[in-house]
Amino acid sequence: MSFEFLNPVEDVVVAHSALLPNQSLGQRIAIHSKQNGIPELKGVHIAIIGVEEGRRAEDNYGAGNNFGVIRKYLYQLFPGNWFSKIVDLGNIPQGETEEDSYFALQEIIVYLVKNNIIPIIIGGGQDLTYANYRAYDKLEQTVNLTTVDTKFDLGTIEEEISSTSFLSKVIMEQPSNLFNYSNIGYQTYFNSQEEIDLLEKLYFDTYRLGEITNDIKIVEPVLRDTDVVSIDIGSVRRAEAPANNNAVPNGFYGETICAISRYAGISDKVSSFGIYEYNAKLDEKDQTAHLIAQMIWYFIEGFNFRTNEYPFTSKKDYTKYIVPIEDTTINFFKSNKSDRWWMEVEHSNNKTTKQTLIPCTYQDYLRAGNQVIPERWWKTFRKLN
């Protein structure tokens, strides 16, 4: 595939990276520059892409510009003991229409994911999540999508797609490849009761900000079962990330959003990761850019700690626990390698019975032992049967 339409990273940012210490990320990442062109992708694990498309970022005019400041802070960070090979492909310029930008992003994502390269997308409006999701049409697989956001961004199917109405298109439009949707960090007063009830009826997973704040570990099995992760930087409180015209007083702290990013990176299933709604003109002292750089660092850190436990290679690497509950039995599996847990959901199709494994927590196992069916097991069972 030709990446000729990609714009290189700005000269001033490339020049800045050349002055950094040899151990810094700026010296370790292969950067698309005017001088060197598109980096070689053979053996690459992660590719960073900016998308200069913010025309449908509702109430956030200016989103999709000046990603160079994020790169400046990312390049000056130091990697851990990482094996991953990383490239920065530069930016997808704003297309003549929004659909042109979507198409360009889809084509790049399809190529990268087919070649086992994870795109890290920096946006632009969060409506780009729709383009990210649609890329999986060509990959011919069902998709689990997780958004980290104060709102569900449902909108209605009749509305033009935007950063506040893309989810209805993901759920309703054909071809429908969506198996599960999860929201992490919604704030109840920003979402109507009808929307909350609808997602519940569809057996989707939603977690309030307070739930995550009280126990960050509950996001790990959610992200372990996710293909596409989309983070609205507005999910972070305004005091920590001011570069968003829709930023609000409550939200995640910087260290919490970095932990969520690390959980996304460590998930064997996550194959694309995006951070959206960055508006450089509102960024006081580059604080949000610095935070986004650290979020990307934590995602890459997580990737380097992947244990390749998905899908199961052999059940001999797991300890099985059988829990009788009500009129059924739930089989739990604990990894001997990572101590992570899965539970088995049985479902029938055309007179055949199959088992599907979904991630869970140790607490789910304990609840089942106390005769409480885990909510994620129940929702998955209803969707499959």
TrEMBL record:
SUPFAM superfamilies: Arginase/deacetylase
Domain of life: Bacteria
Keyword Metal-binding: yes
Keyword Metal-binding: yes
Keywords on record: Hydrolase, Metal-binding
Entry's family note: Belongs to the arginase family.
Protein name: Formimidoylglutamase
Species name: Aureibaculum flavum
